Structures are given as C-alpha cells and as structure tokens.
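User: I'm preparing a small set of examples for a lab meeting where we compare how different chains pack in three dimensions. I only have the primary sequence for this one, and I'd like the structure in token form so I can line it up with the others. Please keep the answer compact; I'll paste it straight into my notes.
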Amino acid sequence: MGRIKLKDIDLSKKIDKSDYKKELEEYELNLLRFQLGLKEKGQKVLIMLEGWDASGKGGAIKTLTKFWDPRGVKVYPISAPTEEEKSRHYMWRFLIHLPSIGVITVFDRTWYGRVLVERVESLTKKKIWKRAYDEINKIEKIIANDNTLIYKFFMHISQEEQLKRFEERETNPMKEYKIGPDDYENRSKFKEYTDAYEDMLNKTSTDHAPWHIIEGDDKEFARLKIIKTILKSA
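Assistant: Understood. Below is the structure token output for the 234-residue chain.
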C-alpha cells in the first residue's frame, strides 16, 4: 500500500438526510448492545479523534455518545497542557484517563498533538517530536494488549468547507465560542499541517490501532461512517 495523501481522499461523499435518519435509527440498538457487551467480555474502548479545525469532531462525538448509557462513557476535550502537565511526560495527562473494563473513553484531540501542533508551531524540538511516532506506537500496543479496542478517527475536510464553517460560527450565537484567531492562524499553515497529518497517518497506523480517515465535508456521512466502523470492527 502506498503512502496516504490527503489530496487523494474523495470528499464528495454524501448521504441524503432522510436516509441518514433512517440508518441512524437502525444502528441505535446495535450501539447500545456494543456498549453493554463490553463488561461481560472484559473489554475497554478508547476512541480518539483528530482532524482539521471545524472538521466535525464535536458533532460526531455528540451523535455517537447519545446512544450509550452515559454512566459508561467519558469524554475528554483536550486543550493546551497546564504548567503541571508540561512538567510531566507528555502522555501522562492522557494515560490517567484510560478506560476501565466496560467503559468507553473518548478523546477530542489526543497525544498526537506532539507530532501535530507541537511540530508545526515549533513548540517541541524536532528530535523529540520525531521520536514520538515510535513512542506512541509502543504505548498503543500496550494499551491494545490490555483488552482495549482502539479506534482512531481522522476527520478530513476541504479548505472550502472549513472556511464555510468558520464563517457560520462567527454569525451563529450558539457557535461563536468555537471560533477564534488561532483557527485562522492554523488555516494559514495548511501545507505544514497537511505534512504533519500525513506523517501521522502513515507512521502510526498499525494493526492494533489503525487510523480511519473520515470524509467530513458532509457531516451526516462522516457520523455514519464512524458508527459503522465501530460496529464493524467490534
């Protein structure tokens, strides 16, 4: 298999809204059964989402988790590390939140920040972020060996769709808190982030923790693909 190139991903994939609602209803019971079966199998689930700003991570998490018993789901939105977290190993703040048996843990942004924002923004020395690929692969293997199902989703959208969503957030009182100067600053570094994302996808997609690229220009298509991926590989 050749190297993954984001420009080759077909972002025209869509689903009719009526078909989306119908399919979503069909998967509702299966998602609940998936969750309820974890404890009897002694399994844990770790779901990790990365992607472009405004690529639909939050909406996908909201759609996915509404079908699960909230007592067995924990969602962690990841922001910049605190001073205390910076003084520890970069994975510490994530590892302390790994799921226990029967629990589904969702990370909105992940330890891949080491090879993404820290790389692009020069927050970490090159020799340090370059060695992180191997570190992450080894840690994820340890986690998988502990009877944990790992799902890694990369939300991919076009620049045109991203700009459309930025502008919508600026004019929508319910969404304006989601947009800020940093979003446009990141957008100006499209080439740098593309290189970082492609390296991440190519160097850290493994048998025990493969990356799933989610075509996200159509939000409904993206959400259904995530659900189908989880149920298919469970």
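A couple of notes for your slides: The mean pLDDT is 96. The first strand starts at residue 44 and ends at 51.

User: Perfect, thanks.
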